[in-house]
Amino acid sequence: MSKIFTADEVKKHNSRRNLWIVIRNDVYDVSSFLAEHPGGEDPLLEAAGQDATIAFDDVGHSADARAMLSKYKVGSLAKGQGCSKLKWALIALGLAIIIGIAYKRYAS
Ligand code: HEM
């Protein structure tokens, strides 16, 4: 069974020697991959201890790159702790819809 980590636990692994990132709710230890990454060290260092799903997808990584992920997987993120940008975007959308409905009722 895969290990479950909280976002706070992942955050602690944010140095060159101890570098974890999250991609689609899975936690990866990329410390040993840092020097080998074809995209250089900087993108990984910037994402250290954080959710790198959007950055990883933005690059348009090849199928080979995506297949390499499993080699570095150390576990998964606890439920409800995934990409916070996506979570806040959904909350904002939900609020906008509620306000829209309330305004329509009030205005008619
Ligand atoms: C375990 C995680 C990762 C793996 C296995 C990985 C693997 C690779 C590979 C194999 C390439 C060569 C191009 C390709 O095959 O797509 C690449 C390029 C690159 N990666 Fe990653 N990568 C990882 C994480 C990341 C993250 C988190 C970022 C950004 C925050 C990133 C940014 C880049 C960039 C900027 C390039 C160069 C793209 C280019 O030159 O066109 N990578 N990566």
Associated small molecules: protoporphyrin IX containing FE
Q: Give the CATH architecture.
A: Roll
Please tally the β strands and state the result. 5
Count of helix runs: 5
Low-confidence segments: none
Structural class: alpha+beta
Give the name of the CATH superfamily. Answer: Cytochrome b5-like heme/steroid binding domain
Tell me the domain tally. 1
End-to-end CA span: 55 Å
Main-sheet strand order equals 1-5-4-3-2
- Bin the strand percentage: 15-25%
What is the approximate shape? elongated
Structure description:
- The chain is of the alpha+beta class and 108 residues long.
- The protein has a single domain (4-80), classed as Cytochrome b5-like heme/steroid binding domain (Flavocytochrome B2, Chain A, domain 1, Roll).
- The chain has helices at residues 7-11, 42-46, 53-59, 63-72, 84-107; strands spanning 4-5, 14-15, 18-23, 26-29, 73-77.
- The chain has a five-stranded mixed β-sheet.
- Strand 3 and strand 4 (26-29) form a beta hairpin.
- It starts with a strand and ends with a helix.
- The mean pLDDT is 93.
- The structure holds protoporphyrin IX containing FE.
- Protoporphyrin IX containing FE binds at residues 21, 28, 30, 33, 37-39, 43-44, 47, 52, 55-56, 59, 61-62, 64-65, 68-69, 72.
- Residues 21, 28, 30, 33, 37-39, 43-44, 47, 52, 55-56, 59, 61-62, 64-65, 68-69, 72 line the site of protoporphyrin IX containing FE.
- Residues 2-78 form the Cytochrome b5 heme-binding domain.
- It is found in: Endoplasmic reticulum membrane; Microsome membrane.
- The chain crosses the membrane at residues 86-103.
